[in-house]
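hiii, so i know i said id send this last week but things got crazy w the move. better late than never?? heres the sequnce for the chain we talked about at the cafe, plus the structure i predicted for it. fair warning i was half asleep when i ran it
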Amino acid sequence: MADSIGYDAPIRLEGQLLIADPTLGEGPFHHSVILLTEHSSEEGAFGLILNQPSNHHVGDFLEKEEFEALSTIPVHLGGPVSRENLSFAALWWSESASLCFETGISASGAIKHAKTPGVIVRAFLGYSGWSKGQLEGEIRHRSWIPAKPTEDLLTRDHDHSLWSETLRNLSIYHTIVAECPEDPGKN
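okay and structure toks below
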């Protein structure tokens, strides 16, 4: 967990979830759950917000008949960077119970993945990115709660409820945090 990370300890986060701490407040990461698909202390990090639906479907953007198989896939806001670009990701569990993913796949690749049992395909506008050392600093300042994905991640709704459901799986403390009102002073 974040509170056991020393200032010089390397952090390895690829394949983990980043859960926004409630103190992040309003903005593009408010109550977000991010799948961190790339992380390197030398290069920075890349991830996709899983729980910010855009209220659009792929068919709203790709209207050609060749993309019909993708037309009902919901489009999520993957992050604040390059929101004008639509991309696809495929997610599945390996036999050894680890989350596997492929990002930046083409529409034709997404169609192939969508036909594979056990694989879910998601569409995203934009992505979340951090420069070298930036994410590590944010974690050390407790802006993010790193967590391993649980096997029910792919069967849950990837909407705003994912944030509180994911927090509840961590600990009793995090359950209390998940159930707090947005503004405790108004309680």
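btw The chain has four helices and nine strands. thought thatd interest u
miss u guys!!
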